[in-house]
Amino acid sequence: MKRNACRFTYPETLAVAAAVVLAFFVLASATPSLAASPEPGMAAAGKPSKTERVEVRIKDLHAKLKITPAQEGQWDNVTKVMRDNAMTMETLIKARSEGAGTKNAVDDLKSYSAIAEAHADGLKKLIPAFEPLYASMSESQKKDADTLFHRQGRGKAKAKAKAKAKAEMKEKAETKAVTEGK
């Protein structure tokens, strides 16, 4: 079986993948919910707001990525984008849930579209903020980041690994059958 050469180098691909995964999980914590907060920034029924969850995520990432004093400036750029994205999403989600009972199907789709667009725009803003930070990381930090973000997508990764293992076993069986048949 012939393999096609990849046009991208491993570090470039890894950096982009890590940035995308980080952006996904930052914004995934700000997914739409139907419950409206009683007051801006306040949690409904004890559930933390989007901005509160992002603050927890920022602290968690800071510790797990072992951000150094030299990286704080780049980290601040990342956290600013994360906070801005969370506020934007929280505002849009709150507006959507407040009008949920009065909107028709078209209005509901439009409000959901605005949330989806904000999510995509947030990713577009986060990736350029994260890339320089990732580039400045030590190999150990990069490995931690890669592991941290890959672990977040564990279900998909397991399914991919299982499919890959199955394909490899099938290929080995076919190879064995061919060599035994000679």
Detailed description of the structure:
This protein is an all-alpha fold and 182 residues long. Helices cover 75% and strands 0% of the residues. Helix 1 (10-28) packs across helix 4 and helix 1 (10-28) crosses helix 5. The longest helix is centred in the middle third of the chain and has 32 residues, at 105-136. The radius of gyration is 21 Å and the shape is flat. The model is unreliable at 29-44 (pLDDT under 50).
Key descriptive features of the protein:
single chain, 182 residues, mainly alpha, 6 helices
Helix/strand order: HHHHHH
* Secondary-structure content class: mainly alpha
SS elements, strand count: 0
Shape: flat
Structural Rg: 21 Å
Residue share in β-strands: under 5%
Extract low-pLDDT stretches. 29-44
Measured between the Cα atoms of the first and last residue, the distance is 19 Å
The overall average pLDDT, rounded, is 77
SS element count, helices: 6
What portion of residues is helical?
over 70%
Biggest sheet overview = none
Summarize it.
It is built from 6 helices and no strands. It is an all-alpha fold. The longest helix is centred in the middle third of the chain and has 32 residues, at 105-136.
